[in-house]
Amino acid sequence: MAYGGTNVNPLAATGGSTTVRQVKLDKECELRIETSLDLPLRLRLLTGTAEIFGTEIPPEIWLTIPPRLKFAVFTWYGATIEMDGPTETDYTADETPMISYINVHAVLDGRRNRAKASPSDSDTSQGPRVVVVGPTDSGKSTLSRMLLSWAAKQGWKPTFVDLDIGQGSITIPGCVAATPIELPIDPVEGIPLEMPMVYFFGHVTPSANIDHYKVLVKELAQTLEKQFSGNAESRASGMVINTMGWIEGVGYELLLHAIDTFSATVILVLGQEKLCSMLKDVLKKRPNVDVVKLQKSGGVVSRNAKEKLCSMLKDVLKNRPNVDVVKLQKSGGVVSRNAKVRQKARGYRIREYFYGPSNDLSPHSNVVNFGDLFIYRIGGGPQAPRSALPIGAEPAADPTRLVSVSINRDLLHLVLAVSYANEPDQIISSNVAGFIYVTDVDMHRKKITYLAPCAGELPSKYLIVGTLTWIEN
Ligand SMILES: Nc1ncnc2c1ncn2[C@@H]1O[C@H](COP(=O)(O)OP(=O)(O)OP(=O)(O)O)[C@@H](O)[C@H]1O
């Protein structure tokens, strides 16, 4: 449990408790909970008002929180919470960065209002495009979620863009995706999946194919740009873009690539002195960059800040007016997850796609002939035969080449995406309809068995494969 930067009240810690109990929260305090590994927790608001990551919880109604969830119930004005069931840990904290986060929201809200009031064909009609950056386990997804829920509560329809292929907040890992957020995000159900725009990368780290990752980020950005041009409401509401925790070397390059590709106007740097200082450095070459002071203490960004990532970003972005790099404090409640826990979390996320967050969906098992499906992977193989190259040149693997994959038992336990492409050569630039999971490959009968979220024929015969695996259990 990470307690850093948080004033934890040890007397209030009731870790592992199983009885029905009440917790009184003072104003601006939060109750941090990790639910048990195998049992849900019931929780309700008895008095006052409270929210879970930006979404208000209704009074009196019992919420059933699934196992393994780490979250906080925060109150602005005071509340009493009742819990029924076991937890791994629960404790109250009276020091949180929530004031600085809501201040960011207020600034973004002002910008949305200004965008809305501008003529729809003007540059100023674009609302804030916020990129949330920071190392792994700095609370990026959580802050993104809060900013989106607070905006939706006020009637905006911000677009959530998730570039974090390692975990996946919108859909399964291995994808870059975007979806409009029209209502505060449900603490249990998560982000509604009605209208996501999903591009399948197929790996959980971009280093598997950096060029392919960049192509997909660009495709997603271009698609959103088109959508925004015909939708003044979405345009004014802007975007919140969640990024990966990989912030060094190529990871840092990819951050800059995302900032440029999405024409970001606000960069929120979470809990990373080095990253913040790097970004600031980059920005300082751009005139007229405003560094906005958004927090009373702790996370205040000052022009003299020495933190590396922030300053690097500022340096890079310094020739760009209207780009703000803001350093924010990481919440002491953010829970660190090691590689094994992350891998497990990926598995749960894929399970959730097929079975639902509360196990309320019934996926279908289908059997088809090998000839009914055309499977491709992106990248690999020589770009051109040696004979076609200038003398002395070595054939290089083309990272964005489409390679046909023959069906064999290597596909077992892989998760494949169903492309919306009409022709194979459109696959790399097409978004996907959904995913299937290969459960059997019968080489003798030339039949493949897969799990799909719904019955019937797949929306397309073109499938994309990467290295994303899942063992159903
Ligand atoms: N205030 C809090 N109290 C309790 N748990 C929290 C709090 N804030 C975040 N968490 C939990 O900590 C975990 C990590 O947070 P989050 O996913 O936001 O980090 P991240 O920086 O996006 O991680 P990643 O490394 O995957 O990019 C999540 O399970 C989240 O629910």
Automatic annotation (TrEMBL):
SUPFAM superfamilies: P-loop containing nucleoside triphosphate hydrolases. GO terms for cellular component: mRNA cleavage factor complex; nucleus. Residues 113-137 are annotated as: Disordered. Pfam families: Clp1, CLP1_N, CLP1_P. GO terms for molecular function: ATP binding; polynucleotide 5'-hydroxyl-kinase activity. GO terms for biological process: mRNA 3'-end processing; tRNA splicing, via endonucleolytic cleavage and ligation. InterPro entries: Clp1, Clp1/Grc3, Clp1_C, Clp1_C_sf, Clp1_N, Clp1_N_sf, CLP1_P, P-loop_NTPase. The keyword Nucleotide-binding applies. This is Protein CLP1 homolog. The lineage of its organism: Eukaryota, Viridiplantae, Streptophyta, Embryophyta, Tracheophyta.
